[in-house]
Amino acid sequence: MTSASTERANITTSAKSQVANTLATAETVLEVSGLETVFHTQDGDVHAVNNVSFSLQQGELLGIVGESGSGKSVTMMSLLKLLPMPPAEIVAGSVKFDNRDLLQLDLESLRDVRGGDIGFIFQDPMTSLNPVFTVGFQIMEPLRAHMKLNKRQARARAVELLELVGIPSAEERLRDFPHQFSGGMRQRVMIAIALACDPKVLIADEPTTALDVTVQAQIIEIVKDLRQKLGMAIIWITHDLGVVAGIADRVAVMYGGQIVEYADVDELYSDPRHPYTRALLQTLPRQEGEREQRLISIPGQAPNLKGPLTSCPFAPRCSAVFDKCHSANPPLFTIGDRQKSACWLEESNG
């Protein structure tokens, strides 16, 4: 390694160390403990979220990753009770925010938190935005409801927000309807709405999934820039491990409705401990030299979540499985200072 490369590596390591130290002493803005959500269906109870616990520090970006059906979105929607109830029911757990348990709040109090203290960017902006109202009206609505701004003040703030997320001719575009915007521009509008009331926490539910690669990169840069400017904490839900590597401080890997690994982003990529995390990382496309490598997939199917988990949910697909994996579901074992893995192979470290 050249002296210049060594210096860059040292600077990068130093910067990451400073971030880790800052987060370690930062205020905890969200504390989720033992969250469990069940869907009551005609075919039986589906245990979609199983004993999920995590914390979020001020200014931190926490990545939530896992394949489709792993419980990422249901977990985050449970925090604000955004699921239809019934069939959904939050049967256990607490969500501490601002010295209150959000799960114990009545609907009116919870509405003050939604969009005010906690912003939410949904997956599909075309179905999240109301097609019969202008974009300006939809941005101004939370400003008038939560911040009690008058129409003139709300309009001025709406223009600022559209400019903040990079929409040109912002004042004129307030009069446009959602169908008059491209997919990327609609997602920027959703970000503007989520940021309208200066939330302490922003939850982004796969905000770049339906966008092309160039627009994805633009949206990610916008969020990174806004995080630096506003200092908010962010939860970023995705199945894209490449995105998480570039933006997250910590990562929670979900499978079978539960967190199976929880680690700082560098540790997760350099030393993944759970077999599912290792399998996920192996599925990333890579090219060695001029020869392209065949894509690797994880054999088997996602677990059936009808009924409580009585064994490791990944056991049927795991290459390191042994007898105990089929008889009991492992807890999250602590490894080192800031890494956890729900695998019986870590029992001696717990």
What features would you describe in this structure?
This protein is of the alpha/beta class and 350 residues long. 37% of the residues lie in helices and 24% in strands. The protein has helices at residues 3-25, 72-79, 107-113, 125-128, 135-146, 151-164, 170-173, 183-195, 213-230, 241-247, 265-270, 275-282, 323-327, and strands at residues 28-41, 44-57, 61-65, 88-97, 100-101, 118-121, 201-205, 233-238, 250-255, 258-264, 287-288, 291-292, 333-335, 339-341. An eight-stranded mixed β-sheet has the order 6-7-8-3-9-10-14-13, with helices on both faces. The chain has a four-stranded antiparallel β-sheet with strand order 2-1-4-5, with helices on one face. Strands 11-12 form a two-stranded antiparallel sheet. Helix 6 (151-164) packs across helix 8 (183-195) and helix 8 runs parallel beside helix 9 (213-230). The longest helix is centred in the N-terminal third of the chain and has 23 residues, at 3-25.
Structure summarized in a few sentences:
With 350 residues, this protein is α/β, with parallel strands linked by helices. Helix content is 37%, strand content 24%.
The mean pLDDT is 81
Strand content: 15-25%
The N- to C-terminal Cα distance equals 38 Å
> How many β-strand stretches?
14
Radius of gyration (Å): 21 Å
Reported for the largest beta sheet, the result is: 8 strands, mixed
What is the count of DSSP helices, taking H or I runs of 4+ residues?
13
* Structural category: alpha/beta
Q: Assign an overall shape.
A: globular
- Give unreliable regions as ranges: 1-20
Helix content bin:
25-40%
